[in-house]
Amino acid sequence: MNRDERVPQLADAFAHHFGGRRATHLVRAPGRVNLIGDHTDYNGLPVFPMAIGRDVRIVYRERADQTVNLVNLDPVFTSVTFSLEQWIDPSPVGTWANYAKAGAQALISRDATLCGFDGVVSGNVPVAAGLSSSSALVVAIGLALVTRNTLDIGRTELAELMARGERYVGTRGGGMDQAICLCGRVGTASVIDFNPLRLDPVDVPKGWRFLVASSLVPAQKSGPAQSTYNRRTEECREALNLLVASGRVPDAASYANLLEQSTIESLLRVADDALSDPLRKRFRHVITEATRVRLARAAMVADDAAVFGTLMVESHRSLKDDYEVSCPELDELVDAALASGASGARLTGAGLGGSVVMLCDASAVERVQASLADRYYGSRDVRPGLDHCLFVAKPSGGASVMTL
Ligand code: GLA
After folding, report:
1. pLDDT bracket for residue 192 (50, 70, 90)
2. pLDDT at position 197, please?
3. What is the per-residue pLDDT for 94?
4. Distances (CA, A) of 186 to 125, 159, 223, 395, 401
């Protein structure tokens, strides 16, 4: 792990807040950027994210009782204390404490008696930007508790537990964010399949750069986007139920079954007859997006940036027109990226704000960055700094723990 300047800063803050004692452990949990495959995970279909070099870090020292004390270096996030009871009462909706509590509550449901810790938290994953800062926090807390209590739990089991646990905040999310956060590998992006959870890491070709650009429209997981997100999960379930009830597809229990048993073309034909909008459009997005993930994997393996980029553009169009989770700012960014020389661009994550990810050739990335700085950010307020809104995402490793 990189011993950059944030580590001594966290260690000093710990001593300051906790009576001069020293922190003993450092947990690091990265954010992620999803390259392609959005709104597929909760339908049991694949995604293709990579962990990025921005993360949530916690330095901590164990406590002998059940208390967790957390101080955040960012004063916007007020300190939180809770006890690892059977049921941890949530804090007011929208507060960061609920993500910390989500990670803890998930572990308690597995191991009833846990001891806590004192910790100081610092994150540099842009918040509400579609880059999973919240899941990084959930995972960091989970990993701290696993280490503190020497629990015997593998990475994929922990990822599944944290994914279920995060529903504590009210979003019926899938398992992508927690899985890549815990299991990502340096230099790769991973195709993730579900039920059972498994990751297939693919080397990111040397000449590829993934640039992330924030639309500056917040995509709060526990905010207004939550009801749209949850409605989409219901629409997908309803579409599947209606198709099966129509008797026109095999008696499939899941989207994955459907795709195993029928071709995309026949599914789209049946959906055209058996479903009406918006369910028909939601269904079309989900199954075409899953197909794009498989094709994108092949394009990455073949170092074919043109095909990968085209798939990204198709994915964005599908998320915009069929899934209806884009917004004018995301569309503007995608257009600006393509006009500036990116090979592909799409919204990433849940959408309705947040960020765009684009694929650029290494030789073009600075030009694209400069062009976006001018075209998109030139007339906008980019506090806390342009490098927080527009940066190259480095394919990074998953969460880690080290002793200090
Ligand atoms: C959020 C959820 C993920 C996934 C994406 C959309 O990030 O946490 O599980 O559903 O949205 O792909």
Report:
1. very high
2. 98
3. 87
4. 17, 18, 32, 6, 16
222-247: average pLDDT: 92
Of the residues 176, 182, 357, which should be mutated to test ligand 1's pocket, given the most ligand atoms within 8 Å of the CB? Answer: 176
**224: closest CA among 322, 376, 327?**
327
pLDDT at 384: 79
Crossing angle for the helix pair 305-321 and 328-339, nearest 10 degrees?
A: 160
With cut-offs at 50, 70 and 90, classify the pLDDT of residue 1: very low
Angle CA(349)–CA(340)–CA(356) in degrees, nearest 5? 5
**CA 111 distance to own-chain centroid:** 26
DSSP SS3 for 90: coil
| 213 alpha carbon, distance to own chain's centre | 15
How does pLDDT run across 30-65, given as a tens digit for each residue? 999 999 999 999 999 999 999 999 999 999 999 999
What pLDDT, on the 0 to 100 scale, is given for residue 163? Answer: 97
Atom of ligand 1 minimally distant from the CA of 171: 8
Asked if 391 and 211 touch (Cβ cutoff 8 Å), the reply is yes
The alpha carbon of 122 and the centre of ligand 1 are apart by a number of angstroms equal to 23
Ligand 1 atom at minimal distance to the Cα of residue 173: 9
**What span, in angstroms and rounded, lies between the C-alpha atoms of 375 and 41?**
33
Any idea which residues carry the catalytic annotation? Answer: 177
The whole-model pTM stands at: 0.96
